[in-house]
Amino acid sequence: MPVAIITGASKGLGRALAGALARRGWDLVVDARSAGPLEEAARELRGAGARVAALPGDVTDGGHRAALVAAARELGGLDLLVNNASALGAEPLVRLADQSLAGLRRALEVNVVAPLGLVQEALSLLRSSSYLPSYEEVAPYIGEAPYIGSEGNGIAYDPYPNSENSQNARLSDSPTYVAAGGAVLTISSDAAVEAYPTWGGYGAAKAALDQQSAVLAAEEPALRVWRVDPGDMRTDLYAAAVPDDDASGRPLPETVVPALLRLLDHAAPSGRYTAAALAPEGADPR
């Protein structure tokens, strides 16, 4: 059975994705800071037939990250690493003039440093995964212009963004090919590419995470490295960010999961995607 690590899996998008993978036959390593909600989620996942290792802890703790990867190894390896745990840096969000530097450091530690630490810990398992086929064996294009550049969707989509500088360097006549390997799915935000008042600290952290993921994709062409903007969601994180906003009309995290599963189903190439562009035709956007 394929194995995934999902951080921040006790609620929200992490829990919804974990449930979908469990129903597909995946085994799971899940974490969250609060033990009670995490164990409740784990019972639900086990009820769907998954083997589950539920480890409460903080992703900024190197020992905790090592334990997550060790648990995946015990389950048989690692095919998908989902960096979903996040921190805002201020609750509620504030303008940069009032942004606590300690809060910004916390946002960077959770959103940028911890994901890299987890990737480093898990890299050997991800490299040895054979779950995803090569780029050569699938149709890599999904939907309309899923890649998001600094100017929006106007950039021509390149289905093999890393091929020229990595596997085909000095081999211009060779076919595009990337060996089988695992995947890293990083949950990004439109705040990483758009300037919204009060979202500066969080957006800066997500922008750094995006660039970090892009470089990882260039350095590890055998892996898929996806960074996905899930769009608006009705989550506790959003409620903490903007407590005065009425979020009742925002989509539930479960509505985003089919878009994430399309990345797996199509063995999509590394890149930045939006859930809206990935959503299957006819999917309910609510």
TrEMBL record:
InterPro entries: NAD(P)-bd_dom_sf, SDR_fam. The keyword Oxidoreductase applies. Keywords: Oxidoreductase. The keyword Oxidoreductase applies. Pfam families: adh_short. It comes from the Bacteria. Coiled coil: none annotated. Belongs to the short-chain dehydrogenases/reductases (SDR) family. This is Oxidoreductase. It comes from Streptomyces kronopolitis. The lineage of its organism: Bacteria, Bacillati, Actinomycetota, Actinomycetes, Kitasatosporales.
